[in-house]
Amino acid sequence: MSDLFRVEGLTKNFGGLAVSREISLAMPAGERLALIGPNGAGKTTFVNLVTGQLQPSAGRVVLNGEDVTGLGAVERVRKGLVRTFQVTRLFSDMTPEEHVTLTVLQRERKATRILSRFRGNAEVAGEVEGLLGTLGLLEVARRKVGEIAYGQQRLLEIAIALALRPKVLLLDEPAAGVPSSDTPRIEQALERLPPELAVLMIEHDMDLVFRFAKRVVVLAAGEIIFKGVPSEVAANSRVREAYLGNYANARSVA
Amino acid sequence: MTAGKRILGAALGALLLGTVSAAADTIKVGIIGPFSGPFALQGKNFQAGVEAYMALNGKSVKGHDIEVIYRDLPAANPAQSRALAQELVVKEKVQYLGGVYFTPDAMAITPLLKQANTPLVIFNAATSAIMTQSPLVVRSSFTTAQTTSPLGKIAIERGVKKVISAVSDYGPGVDAEAAFKKAFEAAGGQVVEAIRMPLNTNDFSPIMQRVRDSGAEAVFAFLPSGPTTLGFVKAYNDTGLKQAGIKFFAPGDLTQESDLPALGDGAVGLLTTFHYAVSHDSPENKRFVEAATKAVGGAEQLSFPSVGAYDGMHVIYKMIEATDGKQDAQKAVDAVKGLSWTSPRGPVSIDAETRHITENIYLREVVKGPDGKTYNKEIQTFPNQKDPGLATQ
Amino acid sequence: MRDVAGIVLIVAAGMAGYWLFPDNLALLTRVIAVALLVLSIDLIVGYCGVATLGQAALFGAGAYAAGIACVNGVTEPLTLIAIGALAGAVAGLLMGTIMLRAHGLAQLVLSIAIVQLFHEAANKASAYTGGSDGLAGLTVGPLFGVFEFDLWGQTAYLFGLALLVLVFIALKFVVSSPFGMLCRGIKEDPVRIKAMGSFVFPVLLKMFVISGAVAGIGGALAAISTQVVGLDSVSFELSANSLVMLVLGGLGTLYGALVGTVIFMGFEHAVSAINPFHWMTMVGALLIAVVLAAPGGLSGLLEKITASGKRTRGGRA
Amino acid sequence: MQTILSIAIDAFAYGMALFIICIGLSLTMGLMRVVNLAHGAFAMIAGYIASYAARDLGLGYAIAIFLAIIGTIVISIPLERLLYRRIYGSPQLTQVLMTIGITFCVIGITNYFFGPTLKTIPLPGSLSQSVNVGFKTIAAHRLFVMACGVVVALGLWFLIEKTAFGIKLRATVDNAAMADALGVRTQVVYAVSFAIAIGLAALGGVVGAEFLPIEPYYALRYMVTFLVVVSVGGAGSIPGAVVACLLLGAVDTTGRYLMPEFGNFFFYAAVIAIVCVFPRGFFGRAQ
């Protein structure tokens, strides 16, 4: 098969409880796939299984024709399977420029060097500047992350991911927690992602999903209940049930 | 205004003159000891011995005033020991060094003595080998081998043939084990088992179980004085070894007077050998105990390091007398070689060859006095004991 | 630029110590040896976020290695320092391998267990280490064949100061290298670092080795200048004290390590000379006061003061 | 067999003594998240009070224990208000600095006022005798320590798991802000928990004095032991602390019986092994 990335029958049990059941999906290069689902559908577990934070009980993760299921999180990143985090995980004492520089150096396997300067490489510096420029982070490049706006932190998450030159990118709710005034900038960044990159986006914001995704997968109770194009999602009865059932529950609790 | 200035000037002048003249005539003695921390009691006894000597014998020798400078070295720490000694010699300009509780601390000072032209009088550190490190060291205390060796004969005399030895696993403990084994086997006994206990042992009942299982008729023990001793003796009583008739021999570190109140009645009957008991019956000791008790601040705190310090000060006074205030370490040491006097512990002398003290070792039994308090009662004397550790070298 | 100024300041302070306290050089040399130990802790605690109460194991490894080499005829000081650094690095490798298996409190306890085992091993191997009597009889040859390690301790002090400055410069390079940044990242969030495609364990282990070498140099310096190695150099007490010095000075700046060591040891020396019997209370009060006044350590306090100074100046401009 | 039984009972007694002294620290570290290195200092203060009450005033053992607990808590109240409150939620190393400082002060002050000698707490006749339990002679006091340990363990378990206060405490630990919002007076909960932990330290100091004698350096001398026991058990876990104390007590005791000269090797090798297998301690809470 020519798929860049696919998962086959991914299953995870915690004790007796199945949090992921027989999940299979495939992505060619250039894919823009959105994974949606109500709270507790198992999206985060899925991301963790794919990126290697969790080991599946059954199933395979295949990248570029290679089975990476047995590999740890770090090796998968090195093979081009990269993620962002739902809640930003950044180093509050470092600047965006330092984050991206470190990431580029790491990608080049130069990050464990002791006998070179952190900013000693002009080529790296140029790439970093380019990335930060693309994401509109140049003006805050040398301020500590703890002091910049949350929207900018989210953009930095994407910049870090891109600095790793991924083949497959998992965006875990890239717009979560961002004030609506800043969402256009995130959207813009998503539009500018390299075209050949396969992107799997997990998102709640349906507007964003509809504008971004070519295809949509809906997850509920650990299972895929829908695969298709965005325009069909709303009409699907199982999806409606999953969401509205959830909604009804939410109503009764309130 | 002017009058005030004049008075001030005069006062300053007097002050300056005073210090200058005093400095010219003051001989400084630096004392290093554990004055704080886990061994603070021993350091306090150093101070008590020094102060008692100066109270009884005056604070000057041949017109030279003696000034004592104390420096704290809470635990064995050679680097700090060297730093303190260096400071005392170079900065405070002391002409004599004294004190030192731990062997490694003494070892760190000995390489300095020649350049410093300063003798070191050791008040406690009890390893034989220190004396060979420098010809400028004199010791006024004891060595573990010296206080332990008579026990070999004593055990045999009391009908004991098989002994189990239990010592703390560190230098002095190992020395004690070796010295006892040598003396006991020379006298015809047999050490059936030798246990070395980690220094930080808190519960000694498993050791006592081993003592019981070994079938020995007596236990020979050495632990550093302090809390561990208490645990050991308690366990010896609690586990019924005492009632079972297993005898207990140890050097006197185990029944130092300041630990006796804590040991209580459990200590009664313990047999120890040592160079000094606070109860020693002599006029010299009465004077000493009176003065030292005053200095240490309570009779229950007085213990053996005080007498080492007291006699150490005696040695230093004699050195000052011989050199008449001039700094000449070799002459000072030569002057006390062969020196003999009556110490609170009994007759003593400095061995001319080893520079270590020759003294009586006493066998003591812990008994209950008429006031209900326990004390070490001297019941047998082994006169003029040298350090067997040095003699063999 | 700031670092150049900082290093000039260290050299100046070192020389000031030499001129102002010419009679306390042995103490100052000891301060330098401990400062190296505290620096090595800063590498692990301040830059990697690994808590340790057992760093003296590495210091002691360096001290004993240098001491044993010296007793066996290696008397050239620089060689001894190199031996100490090597031994420290090997010990660091071992310690890191064990400690990095755990996190948090468990890690702290592993470090304690390791230093206790080292201590016990040094006590047991008394044939080589002298046990509790200490390893004595180190006669170190003159530095460069000329300068003797003598009573006055000028050689030892200047040698130590030079070592400290060199190590400090080297460490400044280390912590500002890509590797140093990576360690800082791991300290803040190891999961993020993994998501960047970097392993955590080998990076931290590398820092343990570097830290071990630094601690080992400190140990070797202590051995050379004291000419005796005691069990205290592999003790929990030394480990705990030096961690206290580091926290006192402030973590993760390297400067804090130096400030903390000098303040703690200087204060301890001063109060224990004034009252050899009850100085501990004063040291305790100092620690409490620092926590109340400057929870981030003394260097953090300095930074705050300079930062507020800058801010006011900036405001005027 | 006799030997094994005898070692077992020694191990149990020692483990229980450790438990009583350490459980308070486990609570402070696990539930209040304060690395209280001064824990031993409070145990020591209690020891001094009990010694004064029993030896110098001639009061009974039970009264001495009671006075020691009350007295130590009273002493700790100003410390909690002035010092500990400042470090709740601080980084652990800051807490270490503060509590080591307190320990140094307590040691210095004790040494100044009471001198460096050992202090004993005379036992009543019924506890100071040796009891023959068939296969060995054991001090009655050891039986008392074992009983105390069991009572403390059960009592604490009941307090934390079964009472209203326990619920508030657990809520406060899990999320102080949320508990506050729900009307739990977290300051009071902290203060009470602190007092309980100090009270336990005091009880441990007095009851365990036969194992760990009272002297000024107590707080530092046994600090490592306390830290190790608490961490191996998992801070804040009562069953964890029980298991850790019994297991480490057993390792220590058998190690010292079988090969005393390698006793420390056994002990610390066991600690390393346990920590590597249970990195959070036996029943540690996830961090």
TrEMBL record, chain A:
One Gene Ontology cellular component term attached to this UniProt record is: plasma membrane
InterPro entries per the UniProt record, alphabetical? AAA+_ATPase (IPR003593), ABC_AA/LPS_Transport (IPR051120), ABC_transporter-like_ATP-bd (IPR003439), ABC_transporter-like_CS (IPR017871), BCA_ABC_TP_C (IPR032823), P-loop_NTPase (IPR027417)
Is the keyword Cell division in the record? no
Residue span, ABC transporter domain: 5-246
- Which SMART domains does the record cross-reference, listed alphabetically? AAA
- Write the record's keywords in alphabetical order, separated by commas: ATP-binding, Nucleotide-binding, Transport
Does the record carry Lipid biosynthesis as a key word? no
Which GO MF terms does the UniProt record name? ATP binding; ATP hydrolysis activity
> One Pfam match, by short name?
BCA_ABC_TP_C
For this protein, the record's PANTHER family field holds: ABC TRANSPORTER ATP-BINDING PROTEIN (PTHR45772:SF2), CONSERVED COMPONENT OF ABC TRANSPORTER FOR NATURAL AMINO ACIDS-RELATED (PTHR45772)
Family of this protein: Belongs to the ABC transporter superfamily.
Its recorded name reads ABC transporter ATP-binding protein
Automatic annotation (TrEMBL), chain B:
Domain Leucine-binding protein positions: 26-369
Region forming the signal peptide: 1-22
**Gene Ontology BP annotations:** amino acid transport
Per the UniProt record, the source organism is Microvirga aerilata
- Family assignment from sequence similarity: Belongs to the leucine-binding protein family.
Coiled coil segments of this chain: none
Keywords assigned by UniProt, alphabetized: Amino-acid transport, Signal, Transport
- Please state what the protein is called: ABC transporter substrate-binding protein
Which CDD domains does this one have? Answer: PBP1_RPA0985_benzoate-like
Checking InterPro entries in the record gives:
BCAA_transport (IPR051010), Leu-bd (IPR028081), Leu_Ile_Val-bd (IPR000709), Peripla_BP_I (IPR028082)
User: Pfam family example for this protein?
Assistant: Peripla_BP_6
TrEMBL record, chain D:
Any idea where this protein resides?
Cell membrane
* Signal peptide residue numbers: none
Q: Which GO terms describe its molecular function?
A: transmembrane transporter activity
- Which named protein is this? Branched-chain amino acid ABC transporter permease
Instruction: Give one GO biological process term.
Output: amino acid transport
Query: Which top-level group of life is the source organism from?
Result: Bacteria
Under CDD domains, the record lists: TM_PBP1_LivH_like (cd06582)
Q: Identify the keywords attached in UniProt to this record, alphabetized.
A: Amino-acid transport, Cell membrane, Membrane, Transmembrane, Transmembrane helix, Transport
Record membrane topology: Multi-pass membrane protein
The UniProt entry's GO CC annotations, sorted and at most eight, read: plasma membrane
Keyword Cell membrane in the entry? The reply is yes
Question: Membrane spanning segments where?
Answer: 6-27, 34-53, 59-84, 96-118, 138-160, 188-212, 224-250, 262-283
Give the record's family classification. Belongs to the binding-protein-dependent transport system permease family. LivHM subfamily.
Q: Does the keyword DNA damage apply?
A: no
